[in-house]
From TrEMBL, chain A:
Keywords for this protein: Cell membrane, Membrane, Oxidoreductase, Transmembrane, Transmembrane helix
Catalytic activity, reaction form: 2 a quinol + O2 = 2 a quinone + 2 H2O
Name of this chain's protein: Quinol oxidase subunit 3
Subcellular location: Cell membrane
Gene behind this protein: qoxC
Native source organism of the sequence: Sporolactobacillus kofuensis
Automatic annotation (TrEMBL), chain B:
Protein role: Catalyzes quinol oxidation with the concomitant reduction of oxygen to water.
Keywords from the UniProt entry: Cell membrane, Copper, Electron transport, Heme, Hydrogen ion transport, Ion transport, Iron, Membrane, Metal-binding, Oxidoreductase, Respiratory chain, Transmembrane, Transmembrane helix, Transport
Cofactor(s) the record lists: Cu cation; ferriheme a
Pathway in which the depicted protein is active: Energy metabolism; oxidative phosphorylation
EC number(s) on file: 1.10.3.-
Transmembrane region(s): 20-41, 62-82, 102-127, 139-162, 189-210, 230-253, 287-305, 311-332, 344-368, 380-402, 414-440, 455-474, 495-518, 590-609, 616-633
Originating organism: Sporolactobacillus kofuensis
Protein name: Quinol oxidase subunit 1
Matches recorded under InterPro entries: Cyt_c_oxase-like_su1_dom (IPR023616), Cyt_c_oxase-like_su1_sf (IPR036927), Cyt_C_Oxase_1 (IPR000883), Cyt_c_Oxase_su1_BS (IPR023615), QoxB (IPR014233)
Coiled coil: none
Catalyzed chemical reaction(s): 2 a quinol + O2 = 2 a quinone + 2 H2O
Mode of membrane association: Multi-pass membrane protein
Subcellular localization: Cell membrane
Domain of life: Bacteria
Length: 207, 655
């Protein structure tokens, strides 16, 4: 079964992660999973945009958002996406050390991002009294950003798991597939952040 | 101290109703009975190794169907309780609160825990066989999907003996379903039970999408696929794009209820309408998730027993594609009366009516397939034939409901209740019964008895009409849905009596079917050919039940209906190959799906009662299982050639 499809293709031209039928199937499955994630975040964005003006006498976007920490989060996450891309390049070059190194840098940046975001949430809650239950606007805000933050945190745990496997097994078709897929996931979260930056912060400041 | 234990037990267990005590006793007895039987016959190891840890799509399919049949029994009992209460005016068989709980659990169970798992069961059994594959793309994930569904179903069903059932309807509308108006654990059970099984459904959608796109036998292009496989491909796309919206809606409701957020509350700027929109953005596509697969089943069965090629294959496919696209832009017709502007209502009115066009095309294609066919009236064919007129009635009343101005008249009346039961019973339920009889020999190696099958069909089908036809008129006479009793003198009483008789008739039909299953297990005709019906597609080229690896050689396809083409002498023998056998790569069984779902159940139960000391460790268990799985590298084995030869020789396929 596993070789039936590949017998027609030239195996040597395929990257390692696509070289087995199993790897090929899982990568396609993961793309479809990301499509489902897109709907999930789309629904959260829709919810947030509907509730954005429902501040119920509590703080609104203007009162709350500060440009400094948000820019820091954005830059850190975008750079982490870049380093994640470099890790995939090292994967294609079959350089395990480089792959591991760039992945470690990626999760360190991810941790900084999560820390900055936690600090942002804490600032809002402690200094402005803006919590999940203050208003519908803030419910939407915290859950949209919180869902993204949870995804990043889960991604960090996932990369750590893959790092352990890469260290033990080196680059094999299986570990290559895992490293490639976590890269897709990481870039996806970056794309979501771009939309958050636009739909939440940018419209918050402008409108 | 004793007082506080007493008050806890009073809160924890549902008390005060003799029927609930009866249910407590029967659940306890059934559980003890199962444990005793398994221990006495030393079957624990067998249960664990052959079933609980299996990743074989055929066994997972069987488990889905068993669970769905049990849930159908539960949902059916709910229905009969409601009909008993409504037989005569001013009855007190159920009080208003209990009645609310019963219609809520009836609806939720029938859609989420009967229709979907039954269809998932049939597609698990048939799709890999129809496309000539040895399993689905992700067998481990498939097992996980099943166990998540099962954990969700069990959590939801626990509510009626522990803590109290949800009572806000299967659509769980805000603000009534929110924490302020609906305190207690009932709605928590709803949001969490449905959420857990929904994660499994999403995974199934992804799994079958990849399976069908990537794992078809060589030569089987998309437009040579069997129609059932086509319907599952399109359904999987709908699942992938509709379910995440529901995941979000349920999560937001959970956060509202447990952590005091304001998504759907009246206070602090929340929007109850937002719930209705999010729910039905999933809920309307969901209707087609449970309908398109049975369209596929009927297409297979009608072609097989009319002994003709399906009429208008390509049109059948494109009409399903059209339905799937339209299904995403009609959700608002579920709440025309909630105060939308006229242009909005008009748009959704038109988009809803448009669905009648591709659906009508399909109806005519089935009729043209029958035209000049040599029709064989087997039990599956009877279900398929009954579907056409009965479902059409449901469809046409749907067009009536789609007219927004008229909908103000019959919205939420028994007219609506009759409409959606006409589509969901004459469509989905007839379809799953049809598929059950059709693929039963492929699942178990023997046929269900035709005589008993026909009895159950005629009783169920006639009773269905006795039950739901009068409901249209009752609705036009003004009786609204979800009312727990009604005064005498409105002229509703005789019709309600007829409806209740019909409902119990359907129960009788179901009992005969259950009896048929038991009887046939002992006396049923064995299927030694693997092709008891004169089938047209690949699943009938392998033995019944299919061997673990499905096909010793992956068949090569050159036409639609490859088995029919082979019988007509157009192609060579699909069952035999001159090539030598090769060891077959198979996935290993795994205990992780069932254990992980157990943790999910624990987490869900903890969050239902807002016991975070229980919920959070449960979630940690889930994550630990995911990590453990990531480190499993020894996850497959090979079936050696001599074992394949032995199996094939036993079926007579070895020349």
């Amino acid at each position: 079964m596993m070789d039936s499809l590949l017998s027609q293709k030239n195996k040597s031209t395929l990257p390692l992660e696509y070289s087995t039928e199993e790897g090929d199937l899982r990568i396609v499955g993961f793309w479809i999973f990301l499509a489902a994630e897109l709907v999930l975040f789309g629904t959260l964005f829709g919810t947030y945009l509907v509730l954005q003006s429902h501040t119920a006498g509590g703080p609104n976007a203007h009162d709350l958002f500060e440009i400094g920490p948000v820019m820091a989060e954005t830059i850190v996450l975008l750079v982490s996406s870049f380093t994640c891309g470099l890790s995939t390049m090292e994967l294609r070059r079959h350089n395990n050390k480089g792959l591991i190194g760039w992945l470690i840098i990626t999760i360190l940046l991810g941790l900084v991002f999560v820390g900055l975001e936690a600090n942002e949430f804490y600032t809002y809650a402690a200094h402005e009294g803006a919590t999940l239950s203050t208003s519908a606007f803030l419910s939407g805000f915290f859950i949209l950003l919180g869902t993204h933050g949870c995804h990043v945190s889960l991604g960090i745990v996932w990369i750590i798991g893959i790092l352990l496997q890469l260290r033990k097994r080196g680059i094999t078709p299986v570990t290559a597939r895992k490293a490639f897929m976590v890269g897709l996931y990481w870039h996806f979260l970056d794309v979501v952040w771009i939309f958050i930056f636009t739909a939440v912060y940018l419209t918050g400041w402008v409108i | 101290m004793i007082e506080s234990i007493k008050s806890f037990l009073g809160y924890f267990f549902v008390t005060g109703d003799p029927m609930i005590y009866g249910a407590d006793a029967s659940i306890a007895l059934a559980s003890i009975g199962i444990v005793v039987v398994l221990t006495y016959f030393k079957k624990w190891k067998w249960l664990w190794e052959e079933w609980l840890t299996t990743v074989d799509h055929k066994r997972i399919g069987i488990m889905y169907i068993i669970a769905a049949l049990l849930m159908l029994f539960r949902g059916g009992v709910d229905a009969l309780m409601m009909r008993t209460q409504l037989t005569l005016p001013n009855l007190h068989f159920l009080n208003s609160e209990h009645y609310n709980q019963v219609f809520t659990t009836h609806g939720t169970i029938m859609i989420i825990f009967v229709a979907m798992p039954f269809i998932f069961g049939l597609m698990n059994i048939a799709v890999p066989l129809q496309i000539g594959a040895r399993d689905v793309a992700f067998p481990f994930l498939n097992a996980l999907s099943f166990w998540l569904f099962f954990a969700g179903a069990m959590l939801f069903n626990l509510s009626f003996v522990i803590g109290g059932s949800p009572d806000a309807g299967w659509s769980g509308y805000a603000p009534f379903a929110g924490a302020e108006l609906n305190p207690g654990v009932g709605q928590n059970y709803y949001v969490l039970g449905v959420q857990i099984s929904g994660i499994g459904s999403l995974a199934t959608g992804i799994n079958f999408l990849v399976t069908i796109i990537k794992m078809r036998a060589p030569g089987m292009t998309l437009f040579k696929m069997p129609m059932f496989t086509w319907s599952i491909l399109i359904t999987s796309v709908i699942v992938v794009f509709a379910f995440p919206a529901f995941t979000v809606a349920l999560a937001l409701m959970t956060i509202d209820r447990l952590f005091g957020a304001h998504f759907f509350t009246i206070a602090a700027g929340g929007s109850p309408m937002l719930w209705a929109n999010l729910f039905w953005f999933w809920g309307h596509p969901e209707v087609y998730i449970v309908l398109l697969p049975v369209f596929g089943i009927f297409s297979e069965v009608i072609a097989t027993f009319a002994h003709k090629t399906l009429f208008g294959y390509a049109v059948m496919v494109w009409s399903m594609v059209a339905i799937s696209v339209l299904s995403f832009i009609t959700w608002l017709h579920h709440f025309f009366t909630m105060g939308n502007t006229a242009p909005v209502n008009a748009f959704f009115s038109v988009s809803t009516m448009l669905i009648a066009i591709p659906t009508g095309v399909k109806i005519f294609n089935w009729l043209f397939t029958l035209n000049k066919g040599r029709i064989e009236f087997t039990t599956p064919m009877l279900w398929a034939l009954a579907f056409i007129p009965n479902f059409t009635i449901g469809g046409i009343t749907g067009v009536m409901l789609a007219m927004a101005p008229a909908d103000y008249q019959y919205h939420n009346s028994y007219f609506l209740v009759a409409h959606f039961h006409s589509t969901l019973i004459a469509g989905t339920v007839f379809g799953i019964f049809c598929g059950l009889h059709y693929w039963w020999p492929k699942m178990f190696g023997y046929l269900l008895d035709e005589r008993k099958g026909k009895w159950s069909f005629w009783i169920f089908m006639i009773s269905f009409n006795i039950c739901f036809m009068p409901m249209y008129f009752l609705g036009l006479m003004g009786m609204t849905r979800r009312m727990y009793t009604y005064p005498a003198g409105l002229g509703w009483t005789p019709i309600n009596i007829v409806i209740t008789i019909g409902a119990f008739g359907m129960g009788l039909g179901f009992i005969i079917m259950a009896w048929n299953i038991i009887w046939s297990a002992i006396h049923g005709k064995r299927d030694t050919t693997g092709d008891p019906w004169g089938g047209r597609t690949l699943e009938w080229t392998t033995s019944s039940p299919a061997p673990e690896y499905n096909f010793a050689h992956i068949p090569e396809i050159s036409t639609r209906d490859p088995l029919a083409a082979m019988k007509e002498g157009k192609t060579g023998d699909l069952r035999k190959s001159s090539k030598p056998y090769e060891p077959i790569h198979m996935p290993n069984n795994s205990g992780i799906p069932v254990i992980m779902s157990g943790f999910m159940f624990i987490a869900g139960f903890g969050f239902v009662f807002e016991w975070y000391w229980m919920g959070i460790p449960g979630l940690i268990g889930v994550v630990a299982c995911m990590i453990a799985r990531s480190f499993v590298y020894n996850d497959h084995h090979y079936i050696p050639v001599d074992e394949i030869e032995k199996t094939e020789a036993a079926t007579g396929r070895l020349s």
